[in-house]
Amino acid sequence: MIAIIDYDAGNIKSVEKALVLLGQDVKITRDAEEILSADKVILPGVGAFGDAMANLKKYNLDRVIHQVVEQEIPFLGICLGLQLLFERSDEAPGVEGLGVLKGEILRIPDSEGLKIPHMGWNSLHLEHNGRLFKGIEENAYVYFVHSYYLKAKEEEIVKASTEYSTHIHASVEKENVFACQFHPEKSSDVGLQILKNFVEL
Q1: Which residues lie below 8 Å from residue 91, measured CB to CB, with a gap of 6+?
Q2: Is the pLDDT of residue 99 over 90?
Q3: Which residue in the list 16, 72, 183, 200 is annotated as catalytic?
Q4: How many angstroms separate the CA atoms of 155 and 168, rounded?
Q5: Which of 16, 79, 173, 180 is catalytic?
Q6: Active site residue 137
Q7: Which domains does the chain carry?
Q8: Each residue of 130-161: pLDDT tens digit?
């Protein structure tokens, strides 16, 4: 069973739909026991960093996520779910992230001719043999919606990057923790392959 963590953030249903399409048994839940007994755990979400951290704490899900990581259950953060795994974000000064991974979330710098939020398809540069990208070609296109981007501290955990006004760390992987800034569930066949790679870990 794949547990999708429910913390009142948007975009949970489209992730569930994509996983069901892949033939997976999926449960949207905030129950600690269900999450900790799942084969895989996903933290999706769109919304604001500060509100999301407040919700995770309200439901004690911050602690549960740390337990998932410690128990080495494969864990995938998507979009806001990626950002929350890091230490801090420009979007919510003074609010601590989960700190599962080292790095910070910065605002995409203004650049002539580029709109923020960044919404649309961008190509990925693949690096460091990411397990999520098995069978994915270099420069494959995926779908992004974000105004803030990841700058990871450890370069070796970055498995895919993209360029939009700046150099963006688009996907990371460290031990059992995986995360994508883009939306695999909205990225057509490429995204489905990425999710399939995760569920087959």
Answers
A1: 48, 49, 50, 105, 107, 147, 148
A2: yes
A3: 183
A4: 12
A5: 79
A6: no
A7: 2-199 (3.40.50.880)
A8: 999 999 999 999 999 999 999 999 999 999 99
In the chain, % of residues over pLDDT 70: 100
Please write down the HEC assignment for all residues of the chain.
Answer: CEEEECCCCCCHHHHHHHHHHCCCCEEEECCHHHHHCCCEEEECCCCCHHHHHHHHHHCCHHHHHHHHHHCCCCEEEECHHHHHCCCEECCCCCCCCCCCCCEEEEECCCCCCCCCCEEEEEECEECCCCHHHCCCCCCCEEEEEECEEEEECCHHHEEEEEECCCEEEEEEEECCEEEECCCHHHCHHHHHHHHHHHHCC
Q: Reply yes or no on whether 118 is catalytic.
A: no
- pLDDT > 90? residue 119: yes
State the amino acid at position 64 in one-letter form. Answer: V
Question: What are 35-71's pLDDT values in tens digits?
Answer: 999 999 999 988 999 999 999 999 999 999 999 999 9
- Cα–Cα distance measured from residue 130 to residue 184, given in angstroms and rounded to the nearest whole number: 15
| Annotation marks residue 185 as catalytic | yes
Whether the Cβ atoms of residue 72 and residue 175 lie closer than 8 Å to each other? yes
Q: In the predicted model, is pLDDT for residue 10 greater than 90?
A: no
Output the pLDDT for position 11.
79
